[in-house]
């Protein structure tokens, strides 16, 4: 197809006001169905209804698109944790509220991994820099990333007198490692065959163990 014909084709099929966002959303759908390996530029442009060359105005290559999808998956992740926290009993206060919000982070984290294994894998595919755990594009509706939501919940435990202040530094890394480990064993490892009720029981025991350990 000539460049001129390609541009005509693009104009005829493209109906989005935000091509960058449309390609990221298409990439999210691909990741949801097949994990990060399924995110490819050509298929993303096909789903967005534009010519393949259009993608290169926004993403230099597949890895650039995958990085954007990774961040968008983290934002979806944050919203899942926020939804779990929003379901906390509004009548709780003090220690009970702090503990419930901490539990909501852990259970929301592992619940997201169970429901959205493709997005869970994509969320960490290119997350090899801890500084990116606080990137603005990874924030949910509260303005916090999943990592920041965990930190805020731990700060709440300190404020409520549950977690000694001297044990707060680095606590998010320990808690994160524990829940991520179980979530990964469930989505990509030998725990994938366990019945749902058994997995959910293990998740609750794990959060309890993490809280006691901290």
From TrEMBL:
Domain HTH tetR-type: start-end pairs: 17-77
PROSITE patterns assigned: HTH_TETR_2
Alphabetized Gene3D superfamilies for the sequence: Tetracycline Repressor, domain 2
DNA-binding region(s), chain positions: 40-59
InterPro entries: Homeodomain-like_sf, HTH-type_TetR-like_transc_reg, HTH_TetR, MT1864/Rv1816-like_C, Tet_transcr_reg_TetR-rel_C_sf
Pfam families, sorted: TetR_C_33, TetR_N
Protein name per Swiss-Prot or TrEMBL: TetR family transcriptional regulator
Naturally occurring in which organism (per UniProt): Deinococcus aetherius
Organism classification: Bacteria, Thermotogati, Deinococcota, Deinococci, Deinococcales
């Amino acid at each position: 197809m000539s460049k001129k014909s390609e541009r005509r084709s693009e104009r005829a099929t493209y109906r989005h006001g935000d091509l960058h966002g449309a390609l990221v959303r298409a990439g999210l759908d691909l990741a949801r169905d097949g994990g990060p390996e399924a995110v490819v530029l050509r298929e993303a442009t096909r789903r967005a209804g534009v010519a393949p060359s259009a993608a290169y105005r926004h993403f230099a290559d597949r890895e650039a698109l995958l990085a954007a999808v990774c961040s968008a998956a983290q934002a979806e992740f944050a919203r899942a944790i926020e939804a779990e926290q929003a379901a906390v009993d509004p009548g709780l206060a003090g220690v009970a509220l702090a503990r419930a919000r901490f539990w909501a982070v852990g259970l929301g984290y592992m619940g997201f991994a169970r429901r959205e294994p493709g997005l869970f894998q994509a969320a960490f595919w290119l997350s090899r820099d801890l500084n990116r755990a606080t990137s603005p594009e990874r924030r949910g509706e509260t303005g916090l990333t999943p990592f920041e939501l965990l930190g805020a919940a731990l700060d709440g435990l300190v404020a409520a007198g549950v977690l000694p202040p001297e044990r707060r530094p680095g606590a998010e890394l320990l808690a994160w490692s524990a829940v991520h480990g179980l979530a990964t064993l469930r989505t990509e490892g030998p725990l994938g065959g366990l019945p749902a009720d058994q997995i959910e029981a293990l998740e609750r025991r794990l959060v309890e163990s993490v809280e006691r350990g901290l």
